[in-house]
Structures are given as C-alpha cells and as structure tokens.
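[Q] Does anyone have a clean structure-token version of this?
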Amino acid sequence: MTKAYFNGKIVSAKSIKINPYDIGILRGYGVFDVMCTQNNKPFLIKEHFDRLKNSATALKLKLPFSEKKYQVIVGKLIKNGNFKKSIIRTILTGGVSANAFSKGRPTCYILIEKFLELPKRIYDEGAAVITHEFERHLPRAKVTNYVEAIRNQEIKEKNKALEIIYIKNGIALEASTSNFFIVDKKGKLITSKEGILLGTTRNLIVKLAVNKFKVEERSILENELRGAKEVFLTATNKDIVPIVKIDGNKVGDGKVGEKTKVLMNLFNNFVNNY
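[A] Here you go.
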C-alpha cells in the first residue's frame, strides 16, 4: 500500500483525512510543490525545497521540517512507492481555523505517485498552446489556487492544446503549469523573469544554455511570442516540450526548432548523468 507523509508521520495515503475547517479547504490558503525523480533520485531537490520554502514564506507559513529532514522523508516515500519514475507532491496549508480566516497549525502532507509520461510524439513533433488573458495572484509563489487553469481545461482540450500561456497587458508571462522560452528571429533565447513562478527546470535550462546561446531573461511582448522562430515549454513533469502552434498558427516553420533540439539533448545528457 502506498505511503504518504502527513503531519509528521509516514502513513497509508488512503488514511489521510483533512479537517473540513482547514483554510486550505475553506479559503484555498496553501502552497505546494511538484517534483519528479530521475534515475530513482529526487531531481533538483534542493531547488524544489528552496522554492517551497519561499512560497510558504509568501503566505507566512512555516514548513514543519528542515531541508535535510525533507530529503529523508522523500527518500523513504520513493523507496516505498517503488515506481520506475515518481512524482512527489508536497502540500502545505494554513491549517485548522477558528474563524475561517486566522491561520492554525499548518497541515502538511507529501504524496508519491507513478509518473505519467507525455506521448513521445509530442517531443518529436511538437505541441500546441493557446493564450489567455490572465495573471496569477502572487506569481512568485506556487499557491494552490489553480481555478483559472481548471476553468479553462475544456477550452484547452477543444483546441487540442497542451498548455495555456497567460497574457497580461500585452506581456506574455508564463503557462498555466509551465514556463516558456522563445528563440527570436536573431537567434536569441529569451524567457520571462518578472511576474512568474521561476520553475526549477526553467532555471536549469538557463544555466545549460548560457554556454551555447545568447540568453536574455526579461519580459516578452505578446507579439514577440507570436512572431518567435521557436518556442518551447519547460516543467518538472514535461522537461522540454517543443511548441509548433500558438492559437492555431504555426510557430516558425511549424516544426521542432534546431535550438530547441540542442537544448533537449543538453537536458537529457544532464539527466542521464544526474
């Protein structure tokens, strides 16, 4: 039976019960993190822990464990799950509230699941995205409020799109569960920096790319996104996904870009040696 961490103990995942007066339920007051394993090891666990801690700080919540303790807990869950590749979800809420507004003792749990791979053709042929006018609240924090992403799920499916890229006042920010990069017509690799969640995979790609390409971290205008030569997504559960259509229109020549291919190889080499 799959185990989970819940408020200080390793328990059966099915035995977890969340108090109905937890403001994570009543008010959506909480943060989370999603991490995967590579070669049966938690991938970029320090970066994920640091981001989780920063998200908790943004909501004035305190994690119930240190980075070292977190590594031990995650290691036990990975061993118990015994999946070829795992997804680890860590959730921290404001806890049980006396008046539906004040914070209580935080509720924290960690779940482990089998990693579900995207179809290989998406990496070989590229995927489609749609755009949507929206900006996440507290974008630097990974908060549990994904109402907009879920509300637009049917539109995304209708358009056979993998992701939704959020646009605000003419600026292309981030995707609903991913970051994105563009290659402009001069060959520069550009990714958003402000008003977004700085993804762990995004940050790694920036580090891997600087020795190969000119890289800029700055705001991306909507027309730059639409006129880009190449576009790709990055995320823990996606790695690097080439994008060949935006709102039904081709990106570049409608094929996976050459610089995207180079970065996919760099990332795969990094993973294989992790």
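[Q] Thanks! Anything notable?
[A] The chain has nine helices and 16 strands.
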